[in-house]
Amino acid sequence: MKTEVISEQQGVFLVSFFVIGSAIVISIGGQAGRDVWIAIFLGMCIAIPLLAIYARLHVLLPGKDLFDILEFALGKFLGKIVGILYTSFAINLGAIVLRDFGEFLTTVALTETPQLVPVAVLGLLCAWGVKEGIEVLGRWSSIFFRVVLVIFVVTLTLISPEIELKHLQPFFYYGITPVLLGAFSTISFPFAETIMFPMIFATFLKKKSPYKMYLFGLIIGGIILTLFGLVEIATIGPELYENWYFPGYQAVARINIRDFLQRLEIIAALVFLIGGFVKTSICLLAASRGVAKVLGFDDYRFITTPLAAHMVVMSFWLYDSIMEMNTWTHYVWPKYAFPFQVGIPVTIWIICEIKKKLGQ
Amino acid sequence: MIIGLILGFTMLGVSEVLLWQDKDPKKIFVFGVFMLIALILSVLLALDLLSPSLAELLEKIINLI
Question: How many domains does chain A have?
Answer without folding.
Answer: 1
